[in-house]
Amino acid sequence: MTEQQQFLQMVTESLQLMAAKYDDQIRALPEFVHRPDEVALIFEDCIPLAEQLVDAGVVAPDALSRMRHINDLLKGYSGGRAQDFWTTEAMKDDPRWEQLRSLARDAILSLGQSVRSPALDWVSYVEGGRTRPDDGVRTKT
């Protein structure tokens, strides 16, 4: 697999995670991570990869625009402005999470991909010292 193919897989899977139903998001991530944060962090980490894919002509600029819009919404919920958004309960029931899922599904389709369950085999986790029940340390391989 080429580097561009790996980047495209990572971008696609980050979108699949964002687009996934609540139960699929929960199943895709280990118990010890803060799952709402993890969904957002995996997604945010893939924005620079999508930018490189656009520069290489592999991904259309429209897909990157859609990803940036999702990321801007996530940033708007950060920094204490919407603490109620960053809970697993909100992931399940909050209309803002449903909006993000819908936008991510649209972005997946703009990549010419089908919406399906996420495959995060390219992400590895190391359980760290806990300060809250769903706190963990994330590393990528």
Mean pLDDT: 91
Number of strands: 2
Helix content: 55-70%
**Radius of gyration from the alpha-carbon trace, in angstroms:** 15 Å
Q: State the separation between the terminal residues, measured CA to CA.
A: 15 Å
Shape label: globular
Low-confidence stretches: none
Per DSSP, what share of the residues sits in E-state strands of 2 or more residues?
A: 5-15%
Major sheet description: 2 strands, antiparallel
Q: What is the tally of helical segments?
A: 6
Number of domains: 1
Helix/strand-derived class? mainly alpha
List the strand order in the largest sheet: 1-2
The secondary-structure element order is HHHHHHEE
Describe this structure in words.
The chain is mainly alpha-helical and 141 residues long. It has one domain (3-140). Helix content is 59%, strand content 6%. The chain has six helices and two strands; from the N terminus they run H-H-H-H-H-H-E-E. Strands 1-2 form a two-stranded antiparallel sheet. It is globular.
